[in-house]
Amino acid sequence: MPKQVDHEQRRRLLTEAVFAVISTQGFEAVSLRDVAEQAGVSMGTVQHYFPTKQQMLSFALSHMRERVLARLQAALAALREPTRRDLIRAATAVMLPVDPAGREEACVNIAFFSAATVTPAYAEQLRDGYGRILTVSVANFREAARLGELRDGIDPDVEAPVLYFLTQGLVGPILVGLYSPDDALALIDAQLDRVFRPISP
């Protein structure tokens, strides 16, 4: 009986190979041949799923959302009776290159941002990703305000994007070693201290 192949799983495995090539060799190094070698498969296998490099990279960028979401869900599931601040802090940490997975994702994201300046399809995907994250971030801050967790005078519609873009701004400094992951997370905590009320003992 012929072996059943999970085609979606195979695409994801090839995408992980794309991420590995980008994070270790750079965006320009990516080719169907490089990805095949990284994944341990034939060129024909890669071309079966992705006839062109453009199709392969576009799928990789869309898969990034699933990958980050899976890590976020795992981080949130590990929390015990979290406050809204705990949830926001955990989500923020997932978006920073503070561990190997986050570092690889950050390298890939930066590579796509650079390519997006001349590739409208990438720019559209990235704008969509920004929009989704900001929508969730604003909803979380609004819920924190409803629960009375925010300090007086704090506008959740302002503070949500401020925190998100602070996080984005810390990615590069962490990658090049200007800030350590702990230093970056300390800045995030300082921002959250400014926005959230202290937790009563």
TrEMBL record:
Family annotation (Pfam families): TetR_C_6, TetR_N
Annotated SUPFAM superfamilies: Homeodomain-like, Tetracyclin repressor-like, C-terminal domain
Domain HTH tetR-type: 8-68
Ranges in a coiled coil: none
Residue stretches spanning the membrane: none
PROSITE patterns named in the record: HTH_TETR_2
Known DNA-binding region: 31-50
Alphabetically ordered keywords of this record: DNA-binding, Repressor, Transcription, Transcription regulation
PANTHER family listed in its UniProt record: HTH-TYPE TRANSCRIPTIONAL REGULATOR BETI, HTH-TYPE TRANSCRIPTIONAL REGULATOR RUTR
Entry protein name: TetR/AcrR family transcriptional regulator
Source taxonomy: Bacteria, Bacillati, Actinomycetota, Actinomycetes, Micromonosporales
